Amino acid sequence: MKVVIRALCLCVCFLQQCLGQYQPNWDSLDKRPLPSWYDEVKVGIFMHWGVFSVPSYHSEWFWWYWKGAKDTDLIKFMQRNYPPEFTYADFAPSFKAEFYDPNQWADILQASGAKYVVLTSKHHEGFTLWPSKVSWNWNAMDVGPKRDLLGDLAVAIRNRTDIHFGLYHSLFEWFNPIYLKDKANKFTTQDFVKTKTGPELYELVNKYQPELIWSDGEWEAEDTYWNSTNFIAWLYNDSPVKNKVVVNDRWGSRTLCKHGDYYTCQDRYNPGKLQNHKWENAMTIDKLSWGYRRNAPLSDYLTMVELTTTIAETISCGGNILVNIGPTADGRIPPIFEERLRQMGQWLKVNGEAIYGSKPWAFQNDTATHGVWYTYQKATDSVYAIVTGGKMPFGKLMLGAPNPSPGTQVTLLGYTGGPFRFDRNPPGGIAIDVPAIPASQMPCDWAWTFKFTQLAN
Asked: What is the distance between the alpha carbons of residues 327 and 333, in angstroms, rounded to a whole number?
């Protein structure tokens, strides 16, 4: 009986998708199947860029902490460096992006091995990176760069890479007077949604056709205030990206980790165990900020050991990883970020077989050795053990999870000297003899992937 009911539900979902019948409520919208590309790509790049890139101090929340929270450090920073009458809007003319080369950005993103990118079209400051019709001169065409930063990158990504193009969009704006009036009315009015943030979303989709919408700034009001379900129903039914677009879970104060094609749950979400719904770990290379910080010391940036470990943990538990960088106000990807992205691409070139298109295995991390994370490829029935921590385990590698069969083979991705000898571990598991591989033959740095075929489990 359960099989019949499940089959009927799948038929209803298929008919809804084909006939454009997703209704503007979560019961209907949550039944939409996740477009397969999103689960397959696994690795994306987040880019936080805006007027906050001009002061490039503290974080992308600079304006709020200066004028909203009255942060003492930021007040002193402004007093030391700017005249008393200086406003946040006065930063915008210095957001010139004079060195911005979207083709160069696209090439760096391609070299990173990432398969999707998410650019901040508008952060909580309200400044749009495209010439929005409802931005009242607070956009990159009218102020600062005097160009469509978003559109130029979209063209470069689509012309030069195989990367899926996505956009971040903040629903609310800290100091927009129309929003603040709705807020003062306890969100019983919707003037801001109807005249500003709602039209922006439709404009973004119709003009740039993103394959992913990363919504944010939702937490102060219910999804009914934001008209979220109406927008998403249009997105799924009638938009130019209806068959491929994916959305996250930030559409209202009660939607986080409950509704959407995939869940983000919280910033830098990394649960360390398998989840029952597709999720994403949106995290930062700069440990303290999403936007560029001029004063960040090297110790504030993730090392490649930390980054590859986070990738392994995330993918093993069924998530995608969205790795954030912060471009500069003059339009550059800073060398520290470029280096990390290119190094990530080098690592993925060797170990991508264990990442792209993979599925969670029966075990996520190993039961005997700390820092070993597993993935699985159904097409080849292969299991992958990603050994993290930056130290290659020469000698005996004891793993508790894999159960070898007589036909099992163990190899190291990127190394031509295999397969490796191993012994069945009497209490269970496997003991691999890892030879002392010369540095010149090491396939990669930072983390290494052992591949198992024909395991008994």
From this structure: 5
> For the chain, give me the number of helices (H) and strands (E)?
14, 14
pLDDT over threshold 50, residue 165: yes
Place of tokens 């304006």: 63
Res 69 pLDDT > 90: yes
The reported pTM is 0.94
Q: What is the mean pLDDT of the chain?
A: 95
pLDDT tier, 19 (very low <50, low <70, confident <90, very high otherwise): low
Residues 6+ apart with CB under 8 A from 290: 46, 48, 59, 60, 284, 324, 326
Report the distance separating Cα 254 and Cα 272, nearest Å. Answer: 24
| Cβ–Cβ < 8 Å for 402, 385 | yes
Percent of the chain clearing pLDDT 90 (strictly above): 93
- Same domain for 335 and 416: no
- Contact predicate 22/16, CB 8 Å: yes
Say which CATH number the domain at 212 has: 3.20.20.80
Amino acid at 73: D
Domain hosting 38: range is 34-354
- Let me know if residue 24 belongs to a domain: no
